[in-house]
Amino acid sequence: MVVFVEASVMDDTHLDQFSNFTNIKDKLMTFRDGKDDLTDKIDFIICMGGDGTLLYASLLFQQSVPPVMAFHLGSLGFLTPFRFDNFQDQFNNVLEGNAALTLRSRLRCIIIKNGELEESNKNVKEKEESTNLLVLNEVVVDRGPSPYLSNVDLFLDGKHITNVQGDGSIVSTPTGSTAYAVAAGASMIHPSVPAIMVTPICPHSLSFRPIVVPAGVELKVSVSPDSRNTAWVSFDGRNRQELLHGDSLRVTTSIYPVPSICAQDQISDWFDSLAECLHWNVRKRQKHLDELTDLTHSSSNNDTLDSLEQAELLEKDGS
């Protein structure tokens, strides 16, 4: 088994005090983000951290992704179902093949700069590849530092759907529906559902609700010609850049999902995360009718005793 770690791990002086690490240090291989291609080198990924660690692992693989076993060491842990306290037993169980997978779809995002479509198809293709990014959660188009409303046009398979005016819009996967999108008022979609969600951020219209479209469509977001300002786009919270007038963002479902290993199964993991991380449907328990009847009887008995005590006092006063 050949183990790859980030180069920064080897540079961490705190690890030198552990003799176990010193013994295996020379056997480890290293990689650097953005410089080394891991596509054909890695067969299995272990994430130790929070949801951001899993997003980072997804970013490292811009094509096919090996199965990911994510351990919960962060603050939220919605996407990291495994506990670290008995990691060896869980790890061995997975290696023996006793595990289910959730295929988490990703979005393929391409930025088309103003005027690129007028060039040759070859040049356009080369430039598309240089701006091609796969995201696991969402791509966000917002107004950036501008005080004006974001004003962008939304197209679905080439047809103009609507104009988005507000703080921005979120185009998310089902996995991302429980992230930024749900905080902006969207519904939560199970990661196995093939869909894309579009959620406005503080829209300038009370009737503008989030929508869910089929996974096979192409979404296009472009800065409106009459917009007072440009727009800014970010991909899973990274690679933030400006969209100028005439620029557009193309979003489709990628053919390269993230195979996430389940701690139990697809349904149990998701609903456990909803309950533990988001406290979904948490409320005080409704009292049973028997409990309400007992309270009523207790209250009636108290009232009767009070009435008797008052009658006794009146008799004493009269005598």
From TrEMBL:
Q: Which domain of life is it from?
A: Eukaryota
Q: Specify where the region named Disordered lies, as residue ranges.
A: 299-319
Q: Which UniProt keywords apply?
A: Kinase, NAD, NADP, Transferase
Kindly report, in one word, the top-level EC class recorded for this enzyme.
transferase
EC number per UniProt: 2.7.1.23
Q: Which InterPro entries match?
A: ATP-NAD_kinase_N (IPR017438), ATP-NAD_kinase_PpnK-typ_C (IPR017437), NAD/diacylglycerol_kinase_sf (IPR016064), NADK (IPR002504)
The GO molecular function terms of this record are: NAD+ kinase activity
Q: Name one GO biological process term.
A: NADP+ biosynthetic process
Stated family: Belongs to the NAD kinase family.
Q: What is this protein called?
A: NAD(+) kinase
Q: What's the source species' lineage?
A: Eukaryota, Metazoa, Ecdysozoa, Arthropoda, Hexapoda
